Every structure is written in structure tokens, then in C-alpha cells.
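On clarity, I found the account of how folds are encoded harder to follow than it need be. Since the whole study asks how a given chain folds, the encoding of that fold should be made plain. For illustration, here is how one protein appears when written out as sequence plus C-alpha cells:

:::
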Amino acid sequence: MVAASGAVAAAGLHGVPALAKPASRGEREPFAVVADSHLDPFSPDHSDNMRAVFDHILARSERPAFVEHVGDVVEIGFPEEYAEWRRVRPDALVDLIRAVPGNHEVRWDEFAKELYFAEFEQTPYSFDAAGVHVVALDPTQLLQEPGFFSRAQLEWLREDLKRAGQDVPSVVFVHYPMSGDYLYVGNQEEFLRTVEGFDVRAVVAGHIHRQEVMRVNGITSVTLPGILNTAAYHWVTPVTGADGAPALAITLAQRGAAGWQETPVVEIPVEGERRALRRAPKLRTEVAGDRSSVEVVADLHPAQDADAARARFVPESVFGGRSSAGWTALAPEQGGRRWRGTVDASALAAGLHELQVQASDGDARFEATEAVELPATATDRLRLAWEKDLVTAIQAGLAPLPDDRLVAATVGGAVVALDAGGSQPSERWRREAAGPVYGTPATDPEGRRVFVPTATGVVHAFDAADGREAWRFTVPRPALAAPATTADGTVLIAAAGRALHALEADSGDERWTADVGGFVGGRPAADERAVYAGAGDGKVHAFSLATGERLWERVLSSGAPYRTFILGPWATQPTLLPGDRVLVATVLNAYALDRSTGATAWELRGGFMYNAALLLADRLVMVDEFGGVVAVDPLTGAELWRTKLAQRVLGGSPALWKGAVAIGGVNGLVALLDPATGADAGRLRIGVDYVHSAPAVAGDVLAVGSQDGRLRAVMALPSA
């Protein structure tokens, strides 16, 4: 990979740019906001709408200070989609267009934001225009759907707002709407805490493809229609409000059957007191002795009024969505300055949960979310053993080593080997990889080497004992998938972009390279004859282990590129099954294929692609992305049992631990199931932040990494 590509991947994914020098807030010029164009050459209506919007902006009598695209510029991140963007974008606006990425730029991005940053500036960034301080944020997570703010980005935001001035009105642009019933950003409450002491007047977002306005904690949140559905945009004009103070007037411009129509949306004051500055409700909680309920007391700010209040535990089944479920009304006390009620917790596991309280005053809401720990009782088997902070997100799965050791790797590029089996972990060694790590490190069968892929295209081989680098190999694309070793440990199969690379495990010398035909986002598998991988071309492929020659391919999805990709096996982690079969999956089905021909032996309905299967002596355990768990006969696919977890599972693949099947839920749940029956064998919620990392066994503990950068280990008490 060229140096520039590596720099873009490393900085754009886990770092933040330096703060710009303060500038004047500029003239009070208007500006435009566009959203969700989802451009691709196979969707001409999207391009037509985008052109119409740009033409209408250019036809205005006033030139905009800037045009902000709030994400999902393209559909899936293919080069031809960015080429379509360049065809649609008028030259007259090139220097005025700015953007933040959306989930469609990153969810399936084999280029690790390289193509995005070739078109748009690195995020986050800020500037001054139209009489306000403008901040553009990027909580997107590579290869994931929802958002999550890194600690580094929140610190950047805090320092940027300080430099702008505590009393300077600011407008934030971000792809995902936040607050209220929106749960698209996993730690959105951290954003609200960060901006609480500053004069943030508005958050402008897209993602939901419709216009909405709400006010939370004094901030006006605005979303706008998606260009994929209609030619529409927001025109924002600095005005003098009805009270004589400066304001931003947002107007919806939309093309209809009778031509372009303009409709006022909202007027946002940019001077005067912000209504809820430092006025989020203050919460006190008391958990019942049997953990069945929590009493909530919410004290409002003395200057704050509310006509209703409610509380809930944030629904743990929701991942990157919206939910209005689970609310309990609170009763007023002290003339409405205090609100009190009891929230049911009887169905929740022991551990950390998020309690959300909202007080409303007309169309304004005041909101606070805090973590509440539900203590374990005598009947709970699982306990938190220890916690270690690795600072940046642990999105890759953990790699177990002999002697109760494990290796964790982060999107900050840290590779850490731990003695993890005791009451406290100790670092054996730590190394800095050449870039962010998203794929689970691999080890050889003896646990002598650790193989680490990076988003900059460097594949490392570290000595498992002391962390010394044995070799490194650079591939021409980001290596985002987990690599795999052969059963005898002699060959490492590394996926990078749309290619597979077979490397000598001892030396890093390349045996062969195979062009797969589509992005390989999941760990390949290999037997003594062949290598198996799913790809973004909708196919499963088999290549000769000896030569890299293509042996067969099996089509599992087809149609336009977007449909082919998202419905195909691009992230599957093939599992070798008895009977000379290999298990692969898509978001719709799992297939047991004949390893020699690719013919289907059996198939099972369900979205099993994002979690590796667990093969036991007499059964195969599979977990779908919605938390469904099923055990089947690996030879016939006959169902043995089925159950459902309280959380979705996207990466927390099952592992065998303490005689149970252990699974990591995406919102921090660790669940144990009896492998014979699927019955509940223990539950503990170890955190409230996203988990995409497969758990690993280290001696007596089960370790799990999360997007908050913390590695946590669970211990199990003896069964009664």
C-alpha cells in the first residue's frame, strides 16, 4: 500500500486532526444542507435528484457560504459510486461542498475510508461561517451500521468548543440524529455531556430520510429528507428573529409536481440564553434488594419547568435504531421540580444498564441517561473478574494463547498480549501495529506466532512469547478481515480487499495471490486441499491451497451491485464441517456446501453471517444477528434446539467455556447456554457500550473487548 493510503487509513479511522486556528465567524451568509444521496450508477433517480438540488442552489440570488452534506453520499463505497459523485457535483460548488460520512460510506468499505477522504476533508473539522461556529463530527465505525464516539473525538470536540469560545453559538453536523427515541449512536449521552457547558444551538443530521425537529436540552435537532427519495434540501439563512435577536431560519426547498416549493421549518435563536444550558435532570436511583425494580428520582433545574416526565431502561434489544418502548410515567413532587417513579427491572440480567429519563415542557425535552448497576444475587452465576483499559476500540476478536494468555488488538493499532487467567491481568508485551486492527489476530496451532492484519495493508507476524516482530508483509489493500492458518500451521491466508494472499507462516514469503472478485470481509478457512472464502460479488469461492487456482464458485446473491453485496456472503466466516462440507452464510441463510463442488448439502433460514459458528462433538451452534441461537446436526442440518437472547449479536461469536456456550451480545451482554438444551446457564451485562469482538477463553475467565476500549473478563461461580 502506498504511504498516502496508509496515512489516510490510520488518521481517519482512529485519530483526529489537529485543531484549526480560531477564525472570525464570518459574514452572515446563508448556507445549504443536503442529505442521503446514496449515489451509484445503477440508481439514476438518486443522481437526477442530486443534480436538481445543486442546480436549484446555484440558481439562487445569494451564493451559499458552504454546502454541507450530512452523509450517505454514496450507496456502498465502490469506486464507481465516487466517480458518479464527481459527475453529478457541479464545478461551481466544488470549493463550497463539505461533508461528514454516513454509515453507507463505512458499513461495507473495503478501502477503509481511503476513497472517501480522497473526495472530502478529514473528520472531525470545524470552521466559522454564517455568524456561527460550525462543527462536523464523525462517529461512524468501519464495517458497522451505527455510530460510536471515540474518546479522542469527544476530547477534540471539547477543546474545539473551548477555543471557539464558551459563549459562541455553534452548529453541529453529524450523520445520525441523537437524543429522544433515537439510538443510532451508542454513546450519544457522552456527546450531550461534552457539549452541555457550551453554546451549541443545533445538531443537523440525516440518516432517517425524513424531516423532523425536536428540542432536547436546549439544542434544536433537525433532520431532513433524503435525496435518494426526493429532490430536497435545507436552506439556512441568518435572520433577525421576532424578539430582535439573531437567528438561523431553516427552510425546506423541495421539488414537487408543480415545481419547487419552499416551506419554513424552524427558526433557531443564536443569541440569548440557551434554554437548557447545564440543565439536564439530575438523577438518583435506588435498586430494590431483589433487583426487580429501580426507584428513580429526577430533580429538575430551578429554572426549568416540565409538564410530564418518564423513565426507562434503554431497550437492550435495539442496535442502531429508534425505540419508543418501555417508558414508565413519573409522578410530580415539589410542584413539578422533582419527579419520582419505579421502573421494572425484573427481566434484566445483573450488571450495567442505561437508565434514561425525559422531562417535557411543551415541545422541549430535558434528558439524562446514566448507567445503573443491578447487583448480582445468590442465583446469578457470573461475576466481573477484572477490567483493563486499552483506550481505543477493540473491534477485533480476541486471540487465545496457551498458558492462560490472550492477545487483544485495537483500532488505535495497539497489540497487547496478556496473562489473563487470574484475578488481575498483566501485560506480557505490547507492540504498535502499522495501522488500525479490525480483523481478529490469528495464531498457529502451537501458539508460537500471532498474525495481525491492519487497515494500512501491513500483515504482522509477532513472536507470541515476547512480541518480537518475526516478519511483515504488505498487501496492496487494507487487510480488514481476520487471517487464518492451515491446520498444520505452515500457511497463513490473509484477505485484503478483493484478494487472498497465501503466505509462508514462518517467513512471510508469498506462495500465491488470488483475485477473488469481491471484497472478502470475513475470515477464510482452509483444509489440506482448498481455501474457502465468501465475497462481495455474491459468491463463495474455493481455491487450491497449493496453487491458488480457482476450484469452484457458488452464487448466493445476484442483481445490481448493492443488492449483490449486502445479500451476499461478504463477511461470512466459513467453518469446516464433517462429511467434507463447509458452512457459509449470508444475511438470509446458512448453507452447508460440498467442499469439492460447492453443491448444497443443507441450508437453514437466518442471518448467520456476522457470527462464526461453533462446532462441538455432535452439534453445530449458530447465532444470527438478531440474537437467535440454534443448534443443528452438522451432517443433516436438523434442528436440535433454538432460543433467543435479549440482545442482537454482531461479532460476539460463540465459544465453549465452563461446559457452556458463551456468546457476547452487541450491547454488553454475556450469555451462557447449555449446549445440550439451549437453556439459560448464566447472564451478566458487563457494560453498556457496543461489543463486536468475539470472546476468548483464558484459563478460568472469559474475556470480551468493546468499542469503549475496555477489555473485561467474566468468571463463573460453580453451578448449584
Q: What stands out?
A: DSSP finds eight helices and 54 strands in the chain. The chain has three domains: 27-269, 282-374, 382-716. The longest helix spans residues 44-58.
